[in-house]
């Protein structure tokens, strides 16, 4: 297979993106006339930034590793039995020592933060029920949002008015729709950078630097664990092998976005609509039962009939995703290549991806 070299502009690759975003970390953001200056950090898709902003804080989603990690830095958590992503998010939270919201969506995310928290009063643990197809679980999730709101008010925030909630929800919904509409106009790596920018500044960056993938390259789905900054090189390896990621179904990708917020429901009860959109529709791997994950995958495969295969990525010690591999192989008709992430895997990854593409060509 002929190889091509993809050159992304500065600002879309590793350290420059992270540095640019870190510079913005302290800049106030303005949402419908409200100047938000104090950050509340979070990392989970189940923590709605709308709810944080409605309490007068600047929601700031932590990027998976803002710094160029050394191979040794990647391998130490692996040796200690920690998922490198969870260890990385916890380390960044410990470093910031500011208000941080964690969600207990897996054992590793429950465990990793405990070792780095310096000031427990600045940390909020949000309990996300794994079971979800019953009214009690919905009510519980909404009560956790209410508990989070009370915590934010105790930390100096303001109680949200309905009008304020509505304007903030509309703003975030418009941003997500803009990102979705531009998804086909830029490659997956650029889409990740634009999404990260949105979840850290509340605004979508202009599209002019975002590159399209070559239209003749092989479309693939990337599925699996959270990605660290160091793992984003896999997008380049896929492109260099003559393919591209048409759907990013990793834990930080478009699979974990809430459904579109409904204007009528927002008018009636904005908090309830927020809870429904986030809790009921994100097909996360930790849900029990997790049939919604497979329904989402089946629908994605049917809708994107041009997809040729799936690259399935797992972090070391990510038992949630590793346990899904046998079921994925029997439930999904597309060929699947399992690519373990982590410090020792980088060198052989490109060769395996190239061999996979030759097999499905
Ligand atoms: S990659 Fe897996 S183990 Fe790590 S935080 Fe995500 S779900 Fe948990």
Q: Could you please say which CATH topology applies here?
A: Rossmann fold
H/E element string? HEEEHEHHEHEHHHEHEHHHEHHEH
Global mean pLDDT: 85
What ligands are attached or bound here? iron/sulfur cluster
Structural class: alpha/beta
Query: What proportion of the residues form beta strands (DSSP E)?
Result: 5-15%
CA radius of gyration: 20 Å
Shape: globular
What would the keywords be for this entry?
alpha/beta, 361 residues, 4-stranded parallel sheet, binds iron/sulfur cluster
Quick synopsis:
The protein is an alpha/beta fold. It has helices spanning 14-24, 49-54, 71-79, 84-96, 107-111, 135-154, 162-181, 188-201, 233-240, 263-268, 270-279, 291-303, 319-322, 325-331, 346-360, and strands at 29-31, 34-36, 39-42, 58-61, 100-103, 123-126, 218-224, 243-250, 309-314, 336-340.
Please characterize this protein's 3D structure.
The longest helix has 20 residues, at 135-154. The protein has helices spanning 14-24, 49-54, 71-79, 84-96, 107-111, 135-154, 162-181, 188-201, 233-240, 263-268, 270-279, 291-303, 319-322, 325-331, 346-360, and strands spanning 29-31, 34-36, 39-42, 58-61, 100-103, 123-126, 218-224, 243-250, 309-314, 336-340. The protein is 45% helix and 13% strand. Residues 1-21 have low confidence and may be disordered. The protein starts with 13 loop residues before the first helix and ends with a helix. Iron/sulfur cluster binds at residues 83, 85-86, 106, 108-109, 225-226, 251, 315, 318, 320-321.
